[in-house]
Specification:
The protein has helices at residues 2-8, 23-34, 45-48, 56-63, and strands at residues 13-16, 40-43. By secondary structure, the chain is of the alpha+beta class. A two-stranded parallel sheet has the order 1-2. Helix 1 (2-8) packs parallel to helix 2 (23-34). The longest helix has 12 residues, at 23-34. The radius of gyration is 17 Å and the shape is extended. The protein starts with a helix and ends in a 26-residue tail after the last helix.
Amino acid sequence: MHAVEAVTAGADAYVEKPFAETMQDAREALRTVRASDRIVQIGSQPAARDLPRREAVPRLREVRPIVACEMSWNVNQPGRWRRPELVAG
């Protein structure tokens, strides 16, 4: 829904996977973007950048101390639109 929020606010947006939690959300985003004059790019930041992940932490530390880091893996979880039969029950 980040794309919807950005476009509704009048901003262009770069959004990453997972683009939507449900197909309904994906369709709403598509309708919203198509009805606007905003630019929305969908990509995968690690694949789109030439900076290897192992170099990210030292470069971030050059800017400021790292005080928190959060990571999540969002594949085939209940409520997701991809392959719900694998997570039923």
